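Summary for the steering committee. The consortium agreed at its last meeting that each partner would contribute one worked example illustrating the joint modelling workflow. Our contribution is presented below. We chose a case with several input lines so that the handling of multiple components could be demonstrated. No manual editing was applied between input and output; the record is shown as generated.
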Amino acid sequence: MPKINIVIDGHSLQAEEGTYILQAAKEVGIEIPTLCYYPHMVPYAACRICAVEARNERGWTKVVTACNYPVWEGLHVHTNTPRVLNARRMNLELLLSQSKPVPVLQKLADDLGITEPRWGYGTDTCIKCGLCVRICDEVVGAHALAFGNRGVDREITTPFHLESEDCILCGACARYCPTGHIKMTDIEGRILHSELLLGPNAAITIPFRQAVPNVPRIHTNQCIHMKTGGCMLCAKVCPKECIHFDDQDEFEEFDVGAVIVATGFQDFDPTPMLQFGYGKYPNVISAIEFEQMNSAGSPTGGKIVMENGKEPRSIAILHCIGSRDQNYHKYCSRVCCMYALKFAHLVTEKTSAEIYQLYIDMRSFGKGYEEFYQRILDEGVHVIRGKGAEVVPTKHKRADEGDLLVRCEDTLISKFREIPVDMVILCTALEARKDASDIARKLNISMGADGWFIEAHPKLAPVSTTTDGVFLAGVCQGAKDIPDTVAQAGAAAAQAMKLMSKGEIMMDAAYAVIREEFCSGCKICNDLCPYTAISYDELKKISTVNSALCKACGTCVAACPSGAIVARHFTDEQIYAQIEGILA
Amino acid sequence: MSFEPKILGILCNWCSYTGADLAGTARLKYPANLMSVRVMCSGRVDPGFILGAFRSGADAVLICGCHPGDCHYVEGNYKCMRRIPLTKLLLKGIGIDPKRVRLEWVSASEGNRFQQVVTEYTEQIRALGPFKLSDWAFDPEQSDPSDNGNVAHALENQPVATR
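What follows is the complete predicted structure of the assembly.
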């Protein structure tokens, strides 16, 4: 782009040809007030507040709108002359004649020294700047808004004043309306964008602070571009052209020497346990929901509040929801006792709520855990031995103490208790992911009845699986806490490294061998082998086994009609000897 | 003393043998009538093994493999699944009750199931009584020592039953 020399308020500068005064002024830090300007769009000059004086070297002058007056060689711009200010005042007073003194206009009026507009104030809040219409057309591309009527009746509206089906509820019009004329209201059955802005839910965000890779990603169901093909503002402002809207998920194939399975777990859904009222009473929440609320990045900013935004006066923490339960999971989830105690500690730090822990057995098994339990006891948390039986609304009974009534048996004092609380946290079980069986099948590893993957040996090979080169780490192998997971992951990594650093693999001595003198070349075995380890030697007219591919299953051995194949270490002789010996 | 059957168990290394091991580590009790032999895969089970077992004095043979679809060797158990019914036909033909051979799927995590299967099968065989060569007399002395109990060989040495 060729550069053009211009002067703004005595500052000489170079501006790109085809740009407008407003942009050039912004670059040298001269603020020109405007209401209807938005970058990335064709300027419209509707508000006319950006009036400036253009002058050439011979003294010709003219008041122009800075937002859409292109720069030319030798242009002198004055932004602060009495003529300019008068023009702005006049334009603002005309705007005020149709609009109420909304804050943005009032501030401009104060800046320009207007105390009493000559033509009074209007009753509308729309100044017909058209920013909303242009954003909807040019940026969003939804074309849901338009100017309607003419002259004094001109207005911003949706076509035929009807609820627009083209509106994608992106909220851009409301966000950029300078006077706040446009408000987002709920449309039944469609999610309102203003709600999505409660949390970090913009269409382009970094998923979470520690995300790897730590880069923003586009949420395709919220991105305006994905809906209308317009917008692309993020791509326009990105200095490195990193944003590609047409990127698709891709499947890549890697050759690897080892696989570490660390697929983790899923949270048990307590909805089917009707007695706890999860999903029925808003203040019955699961442990992970409490963690989310407690996080500093949560919509509540880390405050522990009930659904109505008030701080709870008392909280019951119910252990073993779905674990140690004959009807759901028989195993102990191992982590719940300690995180429940942690919750109690966090709640006492942040609120003055009374806390009740309802447990079956307190399993504070790790290093320093029992000490932490003692500390929680000292903090005055009520620890009740007895599983929470049900959660019901208090109704009239003790309603002033809490909306929910937790019923339980305190087995230490042999009494039934009813505890009124404001909030209930359910410590839900860790359970195997529902797609764990797919992974087990894909990697040919075994899975227990409760869905956890089975290690090759519980003591001697705790991270290996029955498939060579596949290792287990973390909760996918069984419920465990973070230290155990890290330890197991380290072991799995070391096992994988061992394979890789050696550069060679020890093969099992068990594999099938074809005795050439007996092989008739019938090829029955060739199709039986799932590893294609058997091939037919055209020259010798016999089949041969590739011992590196053979996994020693022995299927071919049992099938060979001439008994020519020998499974090393599982020969027919050996097995018959075993059978005879064992039955003798 | 009541009849204690001898049952030969042929267990696949990856599922059933591990399942039996699990039953052991879990201290689950199952009848001591089962004597197990480990093979790498149920696909390794040669029908000759079954005949050999009966020759060696077994009252029944229990073959256990991985559940269909779970085979460590992809499809070895399917091969077994097709061979066992054929073997049973053969047994029927030579006068052995096909109930004396049973194929079961037991996965590595099913220690309980292994216990149940063995207990139940032992009871069944106990009710059935000792294995007798009723129609078919086989003399091990006459057979070729190098013969590995191959079915074809075993049948060759026998007079063909008149139909």
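The CA atoms of residues 286 and 426 of chain A lie 5 Å apart. The two ends of chain A are 98 Å apart (CA to CA).
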